[in-house]
Specification:
This protein is α/β, with parallel strands linked by helices. 56% of the residues lie in helices and 9% in strands. The protein has four domains: 81 residues, no CATH class; 221 residues, Rossmann fold (3-Layer(aba) Sandwich), CATH 3.40.50; 52 residues, no CATH class; 174 residues, Up-down Bundle (Methane Monooxygenase Hydroxylase, Chain G, domain 1), CATH 1.20.58.
């Protein structure tokens, strides 16, 4: 009986609160109140002096004018409402197919644990604990990291994990052609989020590519109007005010509406639980944090900045295992081998290779399951482009490319035992390269001795010098290699390898230039010597490339081992 009575009281409060909220609205808006007051005064004067018929005529004329104006304004309102609709990904607790940490997000346990701790405050229990301590929940989290590291997936899993409504969109979707539409889109997004938070207890607003609207107002992006359009005016400034409105919404996500304040006051009279607004957490994602306005990423708005890096060895193991569990695969696939060969690869690339590209290779081969060869081929496509072989490749040019790539592979094998060669190819790829050598670190690298940079210089020089040694003259095709050499030399210079100090002007210093020239000449001579001493192995690798076009990790190392065994006999 008491439950039914409480429901009746709540309905009564909802009905009574509406007129009270309207009265409160007029009380707080002096301008509207004064306009109504003077309208009543003017009406009384007209009625007293000219009669009610005149007053009715004037009111009718004013009404017609007001209707015409409202009709015109209404058209703009409808147009702006249509334009302000933002494409969003929306999920609510209980939706089928919602992603979760258990079945969709693999690896990065420490990152997941850290983010979960912050999002825990969205729950009812978390909110009670914060209230009991006199504390507040955070307003925003910024996920910063390279593309493909799983920032969007992390945010979606957080929404499911916290039983919160999720509203996701891209920063570019807030931009528009008309001035004012962008801020309206922001308002609409947060209006939906507040309704979702009120209904489900919490809501997450996820804005991908936040730098599209959160750029520095000094001129990178953000509030600066877009140039062009039809002479400025209403056109060409759709980005104006978007960042400012976003900052306002971030500051106001915890405010309680006036009608809900009235409802809560009346509910307290009957000892009923108060209406909770629910918490709105904003999660932004960017790979250009330096471009964001400082007002956006200060504490109180984007309270926490979380770095999302490419996965380490342990996380790659879990990611590869997780995605393999989603597709039919050969049980002999070595996860350890894939983990070792995917250093620096992002979760998005792993997912694409295993779930999208590898199955295509399997189907083309007439299989209903994927193999490790399918996955390796998929990774090569994602990393260096689709195969685009030259059907009538001139034999002399093909031999030159093979010698060039064999030079890189040989010197990398000799000087960089801490790296493993995973692929050597002379097949043209969609990215425009005629050949390449891919190798990866055996361990996770965070800092290296400078001799490793010296080895990198020699590996970069090896292709050009191998061509010169075997063919008797230099060929074109080493432009990218020389760019790598310049990059490594600059890093060595900055680290003081050539006797420089932090305040010395780099290559402008004659002393540093002379030392760098001597160092580079020594590296060239050392590379030439290594290639000459190992020229037989160099030709074995080059000939194998001409024959097979591509060498996998196992094929390359088997080739080298067989050569070494024959040489030792």
């Amino acid at each position: 009986m008491s439950k039914i009575l409480n429901i009746i009281i709540c309905k009564f409060i909802d009905i009574v609160s509406l007129p009270l909220a309207i009265i409160d609205f007029f009380k707080r808006h002096v301008t509207i109140r004064m306009a109504i007051f003077w309208f009543i005064v003017a009406s009384a004067v007209v009625i007293v002096n000219f009669g009610i018929a005149v007053w009715i005529g004037i009111v009718g004329m004013i009404g017609q004018m007001a209707f015409a104006m409202m009709f015109m304004i209404g058209q703009f309102v409808v147009l702006f409402m249509f334009l302000s609709n933002t494409k969003t990904i929306e999920t609510v607790p209980g939706d089928k197919g919602s992603v979760s940490f258990e079945k969709d997000y693999f690896g990065n346990e420490y990152l997941v644990t850290a983010v979960r701790q912050w999002v825990a405050s969205l729950s009812t229990e978390g909110k009670k604990q914060l209230d009991a301590m006199g504390a507040e929940a955070i307003n925003g989290i910024l996920l910063e990291g390279p593309p493909g590291t799983g920032k969007t997936l992390l945010a979606q899993c957080l929404a499911s994990d916290s039983n919160a409504a999720f509203y996701g969109t891209s920063g570019s979707d807030f931009q528009a052609m008309f001035i004012g539409v962008g801020p309206m889109k922001v308002m609409g997004m947060y209006r939906k989020a507040r309704k979702g938070a009120k209904r489900y207890g919490a809501a997450i607003v996820f804005i991908d590519e936040l730098d599209a609207i959160g750029g520095n107002r000094g001129g990178v992006a953000g509030d600066r109007p877009v140039a062009g359009g039809m002479g400025g005016g209403m056109f060409g400034g759709g980005g104006l005010g978007v960042l400012s409105k976003l900052l306002t919404e971030l500051d106001g996500t915890k405010e309680i509406g006036r009608r809900d304040q009235i409802r809560n006051r009346m509910r307290r009279w009957f000892d009923l639980p108060e209406i909770r607004q629910g918490l709105v957490l904003t999660i932004g994602a960017t790979n250009r944090i330096a471009a964001l306005d400082r007002a956006l990423i200060r504490p109180g708005r984007m309270d926490k900045i979380i770095k999302v890096d490419p996965p380490d060895r342990s996380s790659r193991d879990k990611i590869i295992t997780g995605y393999l569990g989603k597709v039919k695969h050969d049980n002999s696939i070595s996860v350890i081998e894939l983990v070792e060969d995917t250093g620096g690869v992002t979760p998005a690339q792993i997912a694409s290779a295993i779930q999208r590209s590898a199955p295509r290779h399997a189907i083309n081969a007439g299989r209903d399951y994927i193999t490790i060869r399918d996955i390796e081929a998929a990774f090569q496509e994602d990393l260096v482009g689709l195969r685009n072989p030259i059907s009538d490749f001139d034999s002399e040019q093909e031999h030159q490319v093979a010698v060039h790539e064999a030079g890189h592979a040989l010197i990398s094998y000799l000087l960089r035992p801490e790296r493993r060669i995973t692929h050597v190819s002379i097949v043209r790829r969609g990215s425009g390269i005629l050949g390449y050598v891919r190798d990866v670190e055996l361990k996770e690298i965070h800092s290296i001795p400078l001799k490793r940079l010296a080895a990198n210089v020699m590996v970069s020089l090896a292709g050009h010098l191998a061509t010169e040694l075997i063919l008797g003259e230099p060929w074109s095709g080493a432009d990218t290699d020389f760019d790598h050499v310049r990059s490594y030399m600059e890093r060595l210079r900055n680290l003081g390898e050539f006797g420089g100090i932090p305040f010395e002007p780099g290559w402008e210093s004659k002393r540093i230039n002379e030392r760098a020239d001597r160092w580079l000449q020594a590296a060239i001579q050392g590379t030439r010597k290594l290639l000459k001493v190992n020229s037989e192995l160099l030709l074995v690798i080059a000939n194998a490339l001409v024959e097979k076009k591509e060498l996998s990790r196992s094929e390359f190392y088997q080739l080298v081992e067989e050569f070494n065994e024959k040489s030792n006999v």
